[in-house]
Write a structure and sequence with these properties.
Organism: Popillia japonica
Pfam families: ZER1-like_2nd (PF22964)
Shape: flat
CATH superfamily of the domain at 347-448: Leucine-rich Repeat Variant
CATH class of the domain at 347-448: Mainly Alpha
CATH topology of the domain at 347-448: Leucine-rich Repeat Variant
Number of strands: 0
Radius of gyration: 25 Å
InterPro entries: ARM-like, ARM-type_fold, Armadillo, ZER1-like_C, Zyg-11_UBL_adapter
Structural class: mainly alpha
Protein name: Protein zer-1 homolog
Domain Protein zer-1 homolog-like C-terminal: 31-347
Strand content: under 5%
Helix content: 55-70%
CATH architecture of the domain at 347-448: Alpha Horseshoe
Order of helices and strands: HHHHHHHHHHHHHHHHHHHHHHHHH
Amino acid sequence: MLQKVLNELFHLFRFESCNQVGQALNIVLEAMNRNLNERHIQISGSATLFYIVKGAGKELHDVVRVKRRIITTLLNGMCAHRNDDTMMRNGCLTLCQFKVPLDVVFDYERLVDILLHSVYGMQQESFVQRIGIYLLNTLACQVDGQQKIKLGDLGAIDKMLWLIADRLKRGICDDVLEVAWSTMWNVTDETPLNCQKFLEHKGMEYFLKCLKKFPDKEELLRNMMGLLGNVAEVHSLRRYLMTPEYIAVFSDLLDSISDGIEVSYNAAGVISHIASDGPEAWNIDDPCREHVLARMMAAIDRWDLYSLRNINYRSFEPILYLVGIYDTPECQRWAVWALANLTKVYPRMMAAIDRWDLYSLRNINYRSFEPILYLVGIYDTPECQRWAVWALANLTKVYPEKYCSVVKSEGGLELLQEVIDHPMPPNCVKELAVIVLENCKQYHERDSLETDTQLDG
């Protein structure tokens, strides 16, 4: 009887409409929670949850308690039936309807465990494996340092390398292989412990094998070199990159035209960090340090300073460190070129901002607004101010629950009021500042009211 009810609800939400969403949702969740070991109940329930969540409006997505109840029920079912392809597919698809990691981070460790199982324990080349690794990569891209460490502790690095080994064995370069490297790139970002795990699990061997087997795959090469850039930023690990074979590869990649300048740029970044340790740390004779650095200077001469980049720096600290390496001007040149390129876009910025949609959803994660708020105060360059205030207006508009409190806690409200009161900023900047203040005001007023609102029914 219960199975029949769930099937009817599934068809109702998939093909028709329901006026009592809250009551239906409670029935599905109760059925799943009381019948955890019943495979058919979990499959029917999770399929219905997908359509409920997908079709729900603000009455669901604004209520944290309801979202957490749905996610907890889904993870319960996925953990109990982790080897069932249909249940795992339903669960992953439903999780994709939420904001990752914001909505799911409360049960972070269990989510990572089940996603890693979907990557490692499920049938090869299955839909579940693909969607699982995309969710993992999204998670790795946006969580903070301790959560990245936890990803490494739970086995993310060795699971990704297992995937890579499988693709190498079968001679397949697909999206799973590329995303596996991308996930490791994100997991190692500013996380030395995970960089060390990559080396300990023979990651460099897989790098060389992928480079040899798939030399013309631009996305793959970019992801691999991005990851090695993270490793090279860790002083204690650079000695493991100092071998004739690795240095020769990095040196050759300086001449790469793959993916624009990205591969060449990342190779130069790796070499710059290695060379920054001084001549005494360069303990190989071939390739010699002078030759590699000369080759790097020649590569930088070829780069277009106006190159648009598919790159995201959370911090300029590693680059700014190289700016101070006075005894190796080649390192300084790469670092200063990087800063010049990344800041060269300002003359074109006003026209670009005019085209941007303030309601755009963003695949981005800010832990702090300090760099943006710094630009808010650059009164002699309104292009900088406008970009910064637009960013705040956009993020507080589409993700108020995540970013309004950050603006307030870091002194952004007072700073924006100063912009509004100041005579120098153009009206377009002041109008955006007003939008940010209004977004924050509305959020904090709404947050102070009763948030435990029931769904319909």
